[in-house]
Amino acid sequence: MRLSLVLPLAVACGAAASGARMSPRGPAEVSEVQPPPSYNSWPMVQTVGGKAVCAYSRGSAHTIGEGRRGVYARTSSDGGRTWGPEVCVVNDPSLGEVTIGKGLDSSGAMLLWVRRWGRKQGHDLYRTVDGISFERISSPSFSPMPMQVTDAFSVPGVGLMSLWFAGNYRKEENGHHWGTLTSADGGRTWRQNTVGADLAKKDWPTEQSAVHIGGGRILAVARSEGGGKPQFQLTSTDGGATWQCRRTNIADVLESTPSLVYDPATGLVSNYYYQRGAKLLKRRVADANAIFGRPMEWPEPEVLAEGGEKRAYDAGNVNAVSMGDRHLLALYSGTESDCAVFAVSVPAPKRGGARAAATGDR
Predict the structure, then answer these.
(1) Residue 221 in 3-state DSSP?
(2) Domain ranges, ordered by start, for the chain
(3) 200-250, pLDDT tens digit by residue?
(4) For the purposes of burial, counting CB atoms within 10 Å of the CB of 39, is it exposed (0-12), middle (13-18) or buried (19 or more)?
(5) I want to staple 43 with a disulfide (CB 3.0 to 4.6 A). Which of 3, 56, 109, 316 is the partner?
(6) pTM of the model as a whole
(7) Which CATH architecture does the domain made up of 4-359 adopt?
(8) What are the DSSP calls for 272-329, one per residue?
């Protein structure tokens, strides 16, 4: 599938509609990827070919099934400070398409998970080497059907892995599931494994973000449903074959997607999330080895930016990627009909700073 050029406009950080704002704190830098009007939301950010790519979904309101909703992307060649022309990844008028996950294959090409909602519900995986032309490489069938498939990452000896979850946000008891997807051929075929089945909503980890930290160990954090309950921490010591799910001490988040970035050079893992209601973009940094078995010991957060939206649920869902000595984050802020996508660039954390004790430098 080839792309069509939609809007030849370079967008830099600037004023947006009421509520669609993002103000930096400290060393953070903020740029506007896609301004209002419409509900621009659920962005995914990845680096590929020396550029940053931000893919996002747009519809008329905070709904997932309308035919008007499609997936679009912009690229940046200056570290996320400015963004080039918008391209359309996919927009089938009979379906609502939503960006749900990203990653890289073994060749360094970007992968993008897109959820289809409507008469042909399912998931498609797209591949791009430049952030401009996207090819659909897989439309796998799953059972149970995931509500969402999250970021793809590499696990030695396994290949690509994504986590998934399925269930009903309105149902309290049972009927909620989660697990893994694995691919040994670059994402063209996938094998589904169910880890947790028929869970109550309070025990259901959703919108997971995972990283491989070496030796077959996978560290993940996940959103929890039902108000201000703490994030979950998921860990595996055998390349994702078996898992342990425990609560963390991170409760300053309201049903908003987290995103992990792991730096093998420092051994530090950054947990990015948006505190809905309080309108704060936050980061907690820990030594990956230290926090792996101690989910209740995440250090205190630092505030990176503040949103301006009036409604708590029309904002958040951070997605992050490493970019040299900085981390680039994508998130959204606004109202249910006027919402903007923003990019926030922050220095990657280093050891030996004020938070040394909390990050394992004891």
Answers:
(1) strand
(2) 4-359
(3) 999 999 999 999 999 999 999 999 998 779 999 999 999 999 999 999 999
(4) buried
(5) 56
(6) 0.93
(7) 6 Propeller (2.120)
(8) EEEETTTTEEEEEEEEHHHHHT-GGGPPPPEEEEEE--SSTTSEEEEEEEEETTEEEE
